[in-house]
Amino acid sequence: MIHSKYKWQVETADETAMQQVAEELKCTLPMAELFARRKVTTAGQLDKFLNPDKYEAYDPFLFAEMDKAVARIKQAIEAGENILVYGDYDADGVTSVTVLLKTLRNLGANADFYIPNRFLEGYGPNSAAFTQAKESGVDLLITVDNGISALDVMAHAKEIGLDVIVTDHHEAKETMPEAVAVIHPRHPESNYPFPDLAGVGVAYKLAHALLGEEPTELLDLVAIGTVADLVSLTDENRLFVQKGLRVLRENANIGVAALAKLASAKLSEATEETIGFMIAPRLNAVGRLGPADPAADLLLTDDPEEAVFLAEEIDEANKERQTIVTQITEEALAMIEADFMDEGNEVLVIGKVGWNPGVVGIVASKLVDRFARPVIVLGIDEVTGIAKGSGRSIEAFHLYKALDANKELLKAFGGHPMAAGMTLDAADVEALRKNLSQLARETLAPEDFVSILRVEETIPVETVTVEFIAQLNKLAPFGTDNPKPIFAFEGVRLAGTKRIGADKTHLKTALTADSGASMDAVGFGSGELVEKISPMARVDVAGELSINEWNNMRKPQLRIVDLQIGHWQLFDVRSRSEWEKLLESRTTTDKVFVCFKDGTKEKLLAQNENLICTQIQTETDLVETTTKDLIFADMPDDVGLLEAIVMNTEADRIYLHVAAENGNAIASMPSRQHFAQLYAVLKKHQPFPLAQNMSRLSKQFSWTNDQIDFMLQVFFDLNFATIEDGVIRLNDVKEKRNLEDSEIYKARVYRIALEQKLLYSNYNELYEWIEKLMNSKGNSILEEIVK
């Protein structure tokens, strides 16, 4: 058994309605369902969805106060005033800076940029920076990707005579900031039809308004910021990203091209995943560790040599960021599992002195995936006692509103329903944790704390073709509100499952259906599952489909997102190689080894003192064992003990090693003729000195000492003979007795049958036996042997 990481939510659709959509869109029923879930149900919507070049972006003057902003900026340009673009340190922020600054300079403006230091100033506008700007001669300051909630700072700007235009997309307060103009897609007086632009999208709309036409050559930057900020990839954002990817493939920004080369990304084949996994993390990295200026400089430069130099600096920062994230994640996991897994911690708020506030958002994301609850991770400054960090949430918990309800504890905060940043006194961290957890208890149901995996449909393996996947790819670019389709495959078997990758942390396998259809699959970061999937397992798998190209061959491939096995599994580790592989496994300390012999337990603990070994020799030793992995390490004298353990332990996985003391070589049983021959010799040479005749018996009849000793013990047990001082004398036996009347003889028969059954039954026979025991019905091996 393997439990899924997520709760699978398979989408359902009304077949009649979907048939109508299929007819309207002139596509197959499965594709109609996919389009309908993305609110594409008419031919016009489909055309816009698939063909962005046929449609223009919305009029930027539908924004409230756009006319005021354009008028003030043009006035500043004509008057030769100094303009400062005030940005943010993430990928959305630096692309916003670049888009607007390139536009302003193209119009002849005296313009520069300023990005606050994450560690010294925090997110968004601050009075000191505004004062410094004014004193240095700035006449007009334009915020990008920030400013909407900085009411006090905007009031300060008014006091010092600094004109400010705010462009932002973050959650706004009820009151708009005092500024020359506020450009926001959710402005209460706005008529703009699409509310979900990224910060760079808003900056691009301002650039459009200033130029009188779209600066489409900048759309690669708009695509990067939009994908990086995880905003809704629908409507205008979808058009921006589709068009931007084309620019990225054909005529990318010089700095982006240099960075992509270091990341081994082929821009000619760029997709939203190229941005999300290769470009955006690197642009984010530099601002997570220090000043973000190099990222903006990279995107602004026209010098190829400077671009290479800056790209190398940023790439090194990304490598350092990865190391720091790994370290903090490990420390955070240990902290949570030790102190915060009890009730009362529905929202995890953790912090530590020395944690880098710049990367804790990434850590928070990883912890949300792990624990399926809102998480805030904070870095604490030991000198100032200030905690700065980031939070990530689950769908049912609006993080920004929750923070707003606790604003008396916060020095600063901002963000979205699913992500936010904040600053507070370290002394208030505990109060914030308690308040947020209390709010979660009051507003969330238990099912809200289970991560949901939305599955488009359960389909057979044989329906997956290269052509089918090509149709799916028409839905790209994928992202928020247009997720990459996830399909489920039920009851398949896995073939050729193995670990891959330099550190063997990934899984490669093939899904095989009963029909014989097969499909390659990979599971990134799922290498530990290889040892947990048995040959007989029926597996349910969910994942994303893609086309794998190798040696001019194009084949369907599944990227496994989750899998589950709903039944117990048997693992045959009777061979030495399989047993040694199990003992070398990285997870042996999570398994319970059942030993029936003293020597087995001692030997195992000598190899690894951390192993959990339970020794069972009689039924009184049986205790209730709860473990996912139960391993039978040696051969019991009484198989009934083994069967009792199986029937009373609900293990997910059972491993059979059952090594015998004789090295898995079944001891031979003397025949009835051998018994008769030995009795005849004893009768002929009465009394019979055993020691001096032992070698003669062995040589004459080719018997081993063990066989001779066993036959004599049977004779003694049946009272056919006695031994005293090494001399055997036959008794006068009146009644006839059979060999089977001897307990010693029966024990040997039983033992041989047991070893034969456990050591030499094939996998299917063992599986059927344990399956019966697990279901507590059918004959046990013990009953079969006794018969």
UniProtKB/TrEMBL annotation:
<dbReference type="InterPro" id="IPR041122">
    <property type="entry name" value="RecJ_OB"/>
</dbReference>
<comment type="similarity">
    <text>Belongs to the RecJ family.</text>
</comment>
<dbReference type="Pfam" id="PF02272">
    <property type="entry name" value="DHHA1"/>
</dbReference>
<dbReference type="InterPro" id="IPR003156">
    <property type="entry name" value="DHHA1_dom"/>
</dbReference>
<dbReference type="InterPro" id="IPR018779">
    <property type="entry name" value="RecJ_C"/>
</dbReference>
<dbReference type="Pfam" id="PF01368">
    <property type="entry name" value="DHH"/>
</dbReference>
<keyword id="KW-0378">Hydrolase</keyword>
<dbReference type="InterPro" id="IPR051673">
    <property type="entry name" value="SSDNA_exonuclease_RecJ"/>
</dbReference>
<dbReference type="GO" id="GO:0006281">
    <property type="term" value="P:DNA repair"/>
</dbReference>
<keyword id="KW-0269">Exonuclease</keyword>
<dbReference type="InterPro" id="IPR001667">
    <property type="entry name" value="DDH_dom"/>
</dbReference>
<feature type="domain" description="Single-stranded-DNA-specific exonuclease RecJ C-terminal">
    <location>
        <begin position="569"/>
        <end position="770"/>
    </location>
</feature>
<dbReference type="InterPro" id="IPR038763">
    <property type="entry name" value="DHH_sf"/>
</dbReference>
<feature type="domain" description="DHHA1">
    <location>
        <begin position="348"/>
        <end position="441"/>
    </location>
</feature>
<dbReference type="Pfam" id="PF10141">
    <property type="entry name" value="ssDNA-exonuc_C"/>
</dbReference>
<dbReference type="GO" id="GO:0003676">
    <property type="term" value="F:nucleic acid binding"/>
</dbReference>
<dbReference type="GO" id="GO:0006310">
    <property type="term" value="P:DNA recombination"/>
</dbReference>
<keyword id="KW-0540">Nuclease</keyword>
<dbReference type="InterPro" id="IPR004610">
    <property type="entry name" value="RecJ"/>
</dbReference>
<dbReference type="GO" id="GO:0008409">
    <property type="term" value="F:5'-3' exonuclease activity"/>
</dbReference>
<dbReference type="Pfam" id="PF17768">
    <property type="entry name" value="RecJ_OB"/>
</dbReference>
<feature type="domain" description="RecJ OB">
    <location>
        <begin position="458"/>
        <end position="562"/>
    </location>
</feature>
<feature type="domain" description="DDH">
    <location>
        <begin position="82"/>
        <end position="226"/>
    </location>
</feature>
<protein>
    <recommendedName>
        <fullName>Single-stranded-DNA-specific exonuclease RecJ</fullName>
    </recommendedName>
</protein>
